[in-house]
Structures are given as structure tokens and as C-alpha cells.
Write a structure and sequence with these properties.
The chain is an alpha+beta fold. The chain is built from 8 helices and 15 strands. Strand 7, helix 5 and strand 8 form a beta-alpha-beta unit. The longest helix has 15 residues. The chain binds N-(5'-phosphopyridoxyl)-D-alanine (PDD).
Length: 276
């Protein structure tokens, strides 16, 4: 593991009870994807980390090239051909006060985990339930405060589905750990990248693939009614790539099978990562 700048064994990591990540969820994170033993869209993840650090006023003691180099060292030591690299940075260790403490050193933790592509799930698709999005108004910041996300995921499972599709007053936002796109009459639609969703690296990559394939794609919000009439629905995310959603709230999406646009994007994605 990478712990405070050093490569160590897990047993050498000891988290302070004063760590603000532990006490307040006061920290930020990224999940990087590794294909063929190499990072996928690393610069985009680092850009988002930098934006999140700025948005949460967390002063990073490393430049992005320095962090990038630390991640390379970790990948070399722990990475496999297909893995994810989890990294979090908390604001630091200080007695519990709400305001940001002065002169604290952010605490970095990162590790790799073997993570084969979820081929069966991408082939068959998942089911979802709709749920009101009760999160705050800075969902574009990738912070450690994921209780709404974990609660939503658990609710989906409790209701017999695989994930939630969140909406705010009927406008679809995203899912518990991925973005969501719909297809109607050949046109892809997804929520614009504003403060109400995480600006997914995979979302941006898939929109780029859509442009290359000359598939029309709009970054325009859609409603639950439009979702109910969609021909296709799919998730995008670091851990799910492009995964079809085949049923929502117990009703089939389109034919109830992954659609042709989804399949086209999956194929294009697979071709693109083979070149990573
Ligand atoms: N989650 N939306 C939310 C709420 C997310 O948590 C994620 C990613 C995404 C997709 O972003 P990207 O394509 O950059 O992975 C969208 C990560 C994987 C996680 O928390 O495990």
C-alpha cells in the first residue's frame, strides 16, 4: 500500500483516531482503472482530483506530476493486468474541531486490487429501482462522504434490484457509483456535467466514443417519464464500463434485452481499452 508517501505492507498502516477522514469523512478520493497493466484515463482522474481538492479547500502537498509518479510506483509494485487503484487523501490529523485545522498534513492512502472486467454483468445487464436523490448540491466533488450512496445501493438490493437510478423531483441524475444514459430513437441522453452529478471519466470517454461513431448524444436532463419510455438504458463508470440496465422498477427497458446502441458502445469501449 501507499501510505503517507511510502510503499508499505497493510499491517504497517495505522489510522489515527484524529484523522478527519475517519471523524468527519473530510477527504477526497479517486478510483483509477488499469487495463493491460497500464492506467486508463489517468490524467482525467488526476484533473478531477485536483478540482475536488480545490472545491473542498484541501491543500495538497504534492503536485499532480508528483502524485502521478507515486501512483506509478504503487502500480508497479501491486498492480495486475486488470486492476483498480483506490486512492484517498484526508485533510489530516487534528483534535476534533469543525473548522479546518491549521498546519495539518493531508494523509494519503492508496492500494491496488485485482479487478477483472465484469464481463457477465456487461453481457446480461442489471436491474434498477428509481429513488429520490437526497444528496447535497456538490455531487461533482468526489469526497469520502458516501453514506447516501451506500444507503441507496443497500436499498436497491433490499428491493431486489442491483442499483438505484437517482432523480431529483423527477429529473434523473445518476446511480450510486456510476452515471446513467438513456437512448430514445437512436439519440443518447445524459444529465449535463454540473453540480448535481459526478463528472464521470467513463461518461466523458463514452460521449467521445459516441461522437466518433456518429451517434447523436445530448447532455440534457431527462425525466422519469422519459426514462420509462426509453429504448435502452446503460450505466457508465470505472468499475462497470458500459453496463446495460434491462429493467427499472420491475418493468423491462425496451425489449428487456441490451440494445444495439449499448452494444455498439461496449464494442467501441473494448476496442479502445485494448489499445491502452
Ligand atoms: N464511483 N457517479 C458516482 C456517484 C460515482 O461514485 C462514480 C464512480 C461515477 C462514475 O465515475 P467514473 O466514470 O469516473 O468512475 C459516477 C467510483 C468507481 C466508486 O466510488 O467506487
Amino acid at each position: 500500500m501507499l501510505w503517507k508517501g511510502d510503499l508499505v505492507q497493510k499491517s504497517d498502516v495505522s489510522v489515527s483516531p484524529d484523522d478527519r477522514g475517519y471523524v468527519f469523512g473530510d477527504g477526497i478520493y479517486e478510483v483509477f482503472r488499469v487495463y493491460n497493466g497500464r492506467f486508463f484515463e489517468k490524467a482525467a482522474h488526476l484533473d478531477r482530483l485536483e478540482r475536488t481538492a480545490h472545491g473542498t479547500k484541501l491543500k495538497l502537498p504534492w503536485t499532480m506530476p508528483e502524485l502521478s509518479e507515486l501512483l506509478d510506483r504503487l502500480l508497479e509494485k501491486e498492480g495486475t493486468q486488470e486492476s483498480i487503484l483506490y486512492m484517498q487523501i484526508t485533510r489530516g490529523e487534528a483534535p476534533r474541531i469543525h473548522q479546518f485545522p491549521k498546519d495539518v498534513e493531508p494523509v494519503l492512502l492508496a492500494y491496488c486490487k485485482d479487478y477483472p472486467r465484469p464481463v457477465a454483468v456487461m453481457e446480461n445487464g442489471i436491474t434498477a429501482v428509481t429513488l429520490e436523490d437526497i444528496r447535497w448540491l456538490r455531487c461533482d466533488l468526489k469526497t469520502l462522504n458516501l453514506l447516501p450512496n451506500t444507503m441507496a445501493k443497500q436499498e436497491a438490493l433490499d428491493r431486489g434490484a442491483d442499483d438505484v437510478i437517482w432523480h431529483r423531483g423527477g429529473t434523473v441524475t445518476e446511480c450510486s457509483a456510476s452515471n446513467v444514459m438513456m437512448v430514445k430513437d437512436g439519440v443518447i441522453r445524459t444529465h449535463p456535467a454540473n453540480h448535481l452529478i459526478l463528472h464521470g471519466v467513463t461518461r466523458a470517454f463514452v460521449l467521445k466514443l459516441a461522437r466518433q461513431l456518429e451517434l447523436p448524444a445530448l447532455e440534457k436532463p431527462f425525466t422519469l417519464d422519459e426514462l420509462a419510455n426509453a429504448d435502452e438504458l446503460f450505466l457508465t463508470g470505472t468499475t462497470v464500463e458500459v453496463t446495460p440496465i434491462v429493467a427499472v422498477d420491475g418493468r423491462p427497458v425496451g425489449s428487456g434485452k441490451p440494445g444495439t446502441v449499448t452494444r455498439q458502445l461496449q464494442r467501441a469501449f473494448a476496442e479502445a481499452i485494448a489499445l491502452v
